[in-house]
Fold this protein.
Amino acid sequence: METASPQRVALITGGSSGIGLALAHELAKRKFHLLLVSNQEAALRECKLDIEKKHGVSCLTYCIDLTIADAPQMVFKFCESNRLEAEILINNAGVLLFTEVVSANAEKLLSILQLHVTVPSKLSHLFGKPMVKRRSGHILNVSSISSVMPYPGISLYGPTKTYLRYFTRALRSEMKIYNVNVTCLIPGATATSLYDPNRVNLPLAMKLGIMKSPEFVARKAVSALFQRNAECIPGVLNKVIMVLIPLVPMWLIHLVHRKTDFLEKGKNTL
Ligand SMILES: NC(=O)c1ccc[n+]([C@@H]2O[C@H](COP(=O)([O-])OP(=O)(O)OC[C@H]3O[C@@H](n4cnc5c(N)ncnc54)[C@H](OP(=O)(O)O)[C@@H]3O)[C@@H](O)[C@H]2O)c1
């Protein structure tokens, strides 16, 4: 008896909003079927309907909190039981934590480490194996320009994105000999729900060119992925920032941190 061949999909974590959703549309335009993974059932349902209607591809969804133990294994099992083959894996789900480490909520502190370090590493391990076996596939890891910013206030966000950048670089070399492409997306400020709209004026920031739209970032990312580029930094300003920021001396960062109230610092009562 003949068994149907598995359905090939692009798997996107955090595919229900922001950059992940824009990547989903960009890939759907290129007729890729999708599997969106995130933790909001209603948002996933809405995205599925919209994508299927707009692009005529199939968009499957899997609702899971990726910070729970074994979440990557559960995503992998979901694909196995539904006969889905990830030809593209996009590790995009992430959160922004803007606080002093000692003031951080313990659960959030752990979740940022899981989302930016553990989950992308485990998913790359699980989905990378069949890619190696097939001698084809793409992995896109979403880092950030904060990866060159070991700064107060983003002491968890920046360094976890540094891990993701260097992990991607090393994984890329390992996978190259198996014809599997691994690319790192390094966005600068992008107008998404990562920011609190009460604190950041997103439309104004986009108008001034300080922020990019998620659609712009996704267009650049997908094109870099298929060109098999090592890294993609969307926007000229962001490319300049990536070169200049590491030159800023840490004493200056300490000074700005001490003299300004940008970060609500020194307010904990430990
Ligand atoms: N926006 C920027 O300026 C910027 C710059 C550089 C890098 N990035 C990176 O880009 C990636 C996407 O962020 P974004 O800006 O597009 O923000 P976003 O719109 O908030 O998207 C984050 C996505 O991650 C998902 N997610 C968060 N926690 C999750 C969890 N525990 N389990 C499952 N899914 C979870 C969210 O799903 P729910 O909505 O369902 O929670 C959402 O789909 C992140 O890795 C971020 O660090 C963003």
